Amino acid sequence: MKILGIETSCDETSAAVVEDGRKILSNIVASQIDLHQKYGGIVPEVASRKHVELILPTIQEALDTAGCKLADIDAIAAINRPGLIGALIVGVAAAKAIAYTLNLPLVAVHHLAGHIYGNFLTEVELEFPFICLIVSGGHSDIVYMTGHGEYRILARTRDDAAGEAFDKCARAMGLGYPGGPIIDKLAQDGNSDAVKFPRAKVGDSLDFSFSGLKTAVIRFVQQNETVPIEDVAASFQQAVVDVLVENTMKAAKMKGVNRVLIAGGVAANRALQRQMKERGELLGIAVSAPPPKLCTDNAAMAAAAAYFNFDEGLKDGLRMDTFASEPLGARE
Ligand code: KG4
Ligand code: ZN
Fold it and tell me: Are residues 279 and 130 in the same domain?
């Protein structure tokens, strides 16, 4: 079964063709980063307009690269929640038009489900149950999954998301947007013990809090201009990675599972991938993470999620709506 996936929830216009939920035939990501860089962040209305320009050529490119025609496609998957409404509407409208014209099934996909299923595109043996840490520009969640489409939220952030902390701290350091990849690169040449930044604990829960760390980094940068920026970057990154690894492994132990996945844009972070795997080895927990291109927003993850959750995603059909926010599952 070939599914055409479409993702426009934020600042990437993406279309992909995936066969049987695992085999990527194409995965085109048209990034708008250049456009938003001069504002230091995403301007929603600018994003929507750019999606309108890019959506049809991106879909065409995905079909061409996959060596497919629309007639070869068996279903359309569109990410419809959560995200920037004006941006989501563009992808969903394109998906509806194609589905209606060709009388194809139209499957709705939750953006965070897409991130989790990004792991299914590269790992062949992902058995339930497992714990997934989803860390992106808008979310930092620990999810317990017992089967396809069964999500229980064990932890979330009380304030900023991990990616948001990377982006805001990078801006304070004068490094540009998006901050995650820039800090990741700089940190490789820095000393992660140079500055002792706070690691926040939220009571007895596994919840995250990154706003105190963000404030500490911003204040430090203002007051210590002579400390090498690589050291600040590495020390900040280590503070984030420490709590992400600590709480995720605690969740795995709490649930008695021996598999952990990581997903979302921040999962592309090399220190996070390495340290999660190292800790997993010590504890006998298998850790999987998609390659960086499948961590950040892309449409192949939408097609994969749709394949494994087909009937559920099909319920609304052409009446599919878009939602700015919607939890992936119930809080445990
Ligand atoms: O999942 P994503 O592409 O979009 C959202 O759903 O938000 O995640 C984007 C976030 C941004 O905050 C970006 O700075 C961060 O992921 N990011 C990274 C890295 N690559 C992207 N953070 C740390 N290290 C990276 N290598
Ligand atoms: Zn995302």
Answer: yes
Looking at the structure, do residues 196 and 103 belong to the same domain, yes or no?
Answer: no
pLDDT of the residue at 129: 98
- Whether 174 and 241 map to the same domain: the answer is yes
The answer on 325 and 281 residing in a single domain is no
**CATH, residue 155:** 3.30.420.40
Give the total number of structural domains in the chain.
2
Residues with CB under 5 A from ligand 2 (ion): 136, 297
Q: What φ, ψ does residue 109 adopt, rounded to 5°?
A: -130, 135
Q: Which of 136, 160, 164, 301 to mutate to test the pocket of ligand 1 (most atoms within 8 A of CB)?
A: 136
Contact criterion met (CB below 8 Å) for 288 and 126: yes
* Under 8 Å between Cβ of 179 and 128: no
301 and 285 belong to one structural domain: no
Domain that holds residue 48: 2-117+294-331
CA distances in angstroms from 233 to 182, 210, 263, 275, listed in the order given = 9, 15, 22, 17
Q: Please tell me whether residues 273 and 157 are part of one structural domain.
A: yes
How many Å apart are CA 160 and CA 139, to the nearest integer?
8
pLDDT digit string, tens, across residues 215-248 = 999 999 999 999 999 999 999 999 999 999 999 9
Assess whether 185 and 313 both reside in one domain.
no
* Closest ligand 1 atom to Cα of 268: 26
List of the chain residues with pLDDT < 50: none
Those residues whose C-beta lies under 8 Å from the C-beta of residue 61, and which sit 6 or more positions away, are 15, 26, 28
Q: Are residues 135 and 283 in the same domain?
A: yes
List pLDDT tens digits, range 112-169: 999 999 999 997 789 999 999 999 999 999 999 999 999 999 999 999 999 999 999 9
| Entry pTM | 0.97
User: What is the residue with the minimal CA distance to atom 8 of ligand 1?
Assistant: 265
* The total number of residues written for the chain in this structure: 332
Q: Which of 32, 109, 241, 296 to mutate to test the pocket of ligand 1 (most atoms within 8 A of CB)?
A: 296
